TrEMBL record:
Annotated TM spans: none
NCBIfam families tied to this protein: GET3_arsA_TRC40 (TIGR00345)
Catalytic activity: arsenite(in) + ATP + H2O = arsenite(out) + ADP + phosphate + H(+)
Broad EC category: translocase
An annotated Gene Ontology molecular function: ATP hydrolysis activity
InterPro entries with a match to the protein in the record: ArsA/GET3_ATPase-like (IPR025723), ATPase_ArsA/GET3 (IPR016300), P-loop_NTPase (IPR027417)
Domain (ArsA/GET3 Anion-transporting ATPase-like): residue spans on this chain: 11-314
Name under which the protein is recorded: arsenite-transporting ATPase
Family of the protein in this entry: Belongs to the arsA ATPase family.
EC number: 7.3.2.7
Amino acid sequence: MANEHHHDGPTRFYLFGGKGGVGKTTLAAAHALRLAGEGHRTLLVSTDPAHSVSDLLETRLGDQPTAAGERLWAMEIDPEADARAYVEGIREDAEAAVSKAVLPALDRHLKLAVQAPGTAESALFDRFTRIMTWCPGDYDRIVFDTAPSGHTLRLLTLPSMLGAWVEGLQAQRAKVNKLQGMWRTMAGVSEPEREDRVLVRLRQRAERFAEARRRLHAEAVFHPVLLAERLPIEETARVIEQLRDTQIPIGALYVNRLWPEDPASAFVTERVAQQNEYLAEIRDRFAAFERVEVAQSARDIVGRHQLVDLAARLGDAAPD
Ligand SMILES: Nc1ncnc2c1ncn2[C@@H]1O[C@H](COP(=O)(O)OP(=O)(O)OP(=O)(O)O)[C@@H](O)[C@H]1O
Ligand SMILES: [Mg+2]
């Protein structure tokens, strides 16, 4: 069975992923509330640009954890600001390594890199790996509102790809250093050998990623969120496929916003009939996984009161 959700130790990290608007932020917040209610010191990490979590928890949140309830902390990351800082870090490393003449070209390149697809996601994953080191310790559980896409997780967690990438860079840097060292010796400059800053940072990042990879396998669970509709079903199948080799376990699928089975009108009857067809397909096609089926509330879920209601409903519906 693909990525069966079975840890020897406790599950510490929860990642909610899915198409836009399916309810990742809402369900992640409710789940965090539920974990805190069960006695775990829980951190909710959101990347929602609309500050939905601040609204939901009725707490002004920022880039660092803020207390948001009993045993509950939350933070809102701005992925774009993060991507800029990430690229700036790379720029500083590179500046130390290249000659002044090529700096303007490097700058132009990095400006483009900030906007390149994938940069924001890589930066986010980098940030996630740092946040993961806070648990256990400051927190018992961490809930990530939006998981990086299956594609990104694949790129960053498959040891072969990441390992080859970092090793290649390291080999390149080592070669440059050796040449520079030889040059200095020939020139009679007897500078004490200081360890290359770029190499050190590369190695640290590689180690942090390797550790995150190990912990994503041993302590994390990925919850796909979907609706009983065609596009989210296909997206979910794709994510499960992409995650297959990454060793990240797949937990319960959250099938959100189900219509109530109240045949009050022909419209509702028709809507519910279609939903039931899709729901049957989801139960059948993803039979290998557990499921949490979440009824659509009559009202949008805004603010703490409704979130508490939803958290209680999840407690009734959830398999664990
Ligand atoms: N079970 C539910 N019942 C009623 N409304 C819901 C439910 N789940 C989510 N919603 C509403 O659906 C909307 C989208 O939810 P949410 O913001 O959690 O989605 P998201 O997947 O985080 O979106 P994005 O991809 O934009 O970050 C919100 O208005 C939310 O209140
Ligand atoms: Mg969201």
